[in-house]
Amino acid sequence: MKYSNSAKHLARFDHQYVWHPFTQMKEWGQASPLIITRGQGPYLYDIDGRRYLDGTSSIWVNIHGHRNGEINRAIRQQLNQVAHTTFLGLSNPPAILLARELIRLAPTGLSRVFYSDDGSTAMEVALKMALQYWRQRRTPRPKKKKFVHLSLAYHGDTVGGMSLSGMELFHKPFRPILFSTHQIDPPYCYRCPLHFTFPSCQMACIDPLEQLLRKDHHHIAAVVIEPLVQAVAGMIPSPPGYLRRIRELCTTYDVLLIADEVATGFGRTGKMFACEHEDVTPDLMAVAKGLTGGYVPLAATLATEEIFQAFLGDYAERKTFFHGHSYTGNPLGCSAALANLSLFKKDRTLGKVRKNAAVLGRLLRDVAQESIVGDVRQCGFMVGIELVKDRKLKTPFPLTQRMGHHVSMEARRRGLLIRPIGNVLVLMPPLCVEVTHLTRMIKILRDAIRCVERKRLAKTPNSKKTISRSKPMTKIINPKR
Fold first, then answer.
1. Do 303 and 377 belong to one domain?
2. Alpha-carbon span 118 to 85, nearest angstrom
């Protein structure tokens, strides 16, 4: 598509009319926006024709690359049929077939699919299902209405999602409308709140959860967790066995387990879903982001048959799940998702991810040696690089110093698009990348880190004293396990 307006005009229109998410618009209005006009494979192109590697899969959604021929064809074919029909009182072939395919791929025991629009709404659905389930099952437990989640968690920006999240910066303004929850410390090994070291700690971070469930399980509806990796928290991986232990505790104390696989699902960790690494079946599982291969919005909440059965009854009993979205089960989105899942099998995507993740791990060893890199965390194609002022003391940079932002801007100038989370650089490339792409990404990242550090030292008196040469901490979760 050709744009009649020049880059200059579009930038002015953007500043005049658009409000961007998670963006300080005063700062945005003083900068020239990067306007993306097309993509191909792992690359994006701006309005001036410059090419960039898509280092975050366009915020963790793109799977098989941009303009994938098979997904494009699936959407075009569906457009020749119908673009959208309501799912309230009607159905459509793509939505039916996608539900069957999702259940075939999901952890054993999940049997029902409820569609929604994005990760936040998929999690909102899970919360509402959990609450209603305890009130409607054969032996009702109406007192079970509390939720447990990890601090630093992120489960979306709806009221329910924010209530279950620990991102104070994001959600503090909305605290008056949020409901109360139980919050426990996450398994943040690099900055362990208990000051222990894995594995000698024997996962002591789980003890508070066990104590809470033992004491108050009669009032707790569910434990909510991002399996294997807390993504928005800064790509924080849980130690081996942590997820399995959470599942065991939920079973023991008759509490539901809700798995938020919005970021970790669809191959990011080396398996289709992160829960598979420890053979865990949650009671409810939310998926989104990569579901359509990064093409159109679509999400789903998967439930066990036991939960589904609690919603069955005569009309007068009012057991219906009164929740829905205008675009629920959208045929275009479901067609794209079917093509996306088909490509996993055809291209043997998961095997390729596991192989390339091992290469990525070796490349990251060089990044871990940089003087301001304190921790490198990797699980498959999910990477977090935490920048610190002092590696020995793990002293963080003040957020106002915006080290992550400066590195991302330097990376952009070199042809790599990433978006940091505070002091953590996030790398989550499309699963279609080759070793040559990964090698280029890591070189750019390392050059950008070095450039920013040189500039910082040039402005810092006695800068030599700020450099620590202690051994960095690098954690790589083997996606083959």
1. no
2. 18
User: For residue 278, how many other CB atoms are within 10 A of its CB?
Assistant: 18
Distance CA 472, CA 394 (A): 10
CB 429 within 8 A of CB 57: yes
- Locate tokens 């366009």: which residue? 58
Do residues 449 and 407 make contact, with C-beta atoms less than 8 angstroms apart? yes
SS3 state of residue 449 = helix
Instruction: Spell out the per-residue pLDDT of the chain, length 481, in tens.
Output: 555 568 899 999 999 999 999 999 999 999 899 999 999 999 999 999 999 999 999 999 999 999 999 999 999 999 999 999 999 999 999 999 999 999 999 999 999 999 999 999 999 999 999 999 999 999 999 999 999 999 999 999 999 999 999 888 889 999 999 999 999 999 999 999 888 999 999 999 999 999 999 999 999 999 999 999 999 999 999 999 999 999 999 999 999 999 999 999 999 999 999 999 999 999 999 999 999 999 999 999 999 999 999 999 999 999 999 999 999 999 999 999 999 999 999 999 999 999 999 999 999 999 999 999 999 999 999 999 999 999 999 999 999 999 999 999 999 999 999 999 999 999 999 999 999 999 999 999 999 999 999 999 988 776 554 444 445 555 555 554 4
Residue entry with tokens 């021929």: 69
How many structural domains are present in the chain?
2
Strands, E assignment, 240-355: 256-260, 284-287, 299-304
Edge-first strand listing for the sheet containing 256-260: 110-116, 299-304, 284-287, 256-260, 220-225, 146-150, 182-184
Residues 248 and 324 in one domain: yes
Structural element, H or E, at residue 27: helix 25-28
Domain encompassing residue 297: 71-346
User: In Å, what is the CA distance from 301 to each residue of 3, 393, 425?
Assistant: 38, 42, 29
Phi-psi region of 85 (alpha: psi -120 to 50; beta: other; left: phi over 0): beta
* Same domain as 354, residue 332: no
pTM tops 0.85: yes
What is the distance between the alpha carbons of residues 31 and 220, in angstroms, rounded to a whole number?
48
The CATH number for 439's domain is 3.90.1150.10
Q: How far apart are CA 268 and CA 289, in angstroms?
A: 11
3-class SS of residue 422: coil
- Tokens found for residue 463: 């800068």
Q: Report yes or no on 88 lying in a domain.
A: yes
Q: How far is CA 436 from CA 142, 352, 363, in A?
A: 56, 14, 11
Question: Residue type at 130?
Answer: A
Helix axes 331-346, 69-79, angle to 10 degrees: 150
Task: Let me know whether 333 and 354 are in one domain.
Answer: no
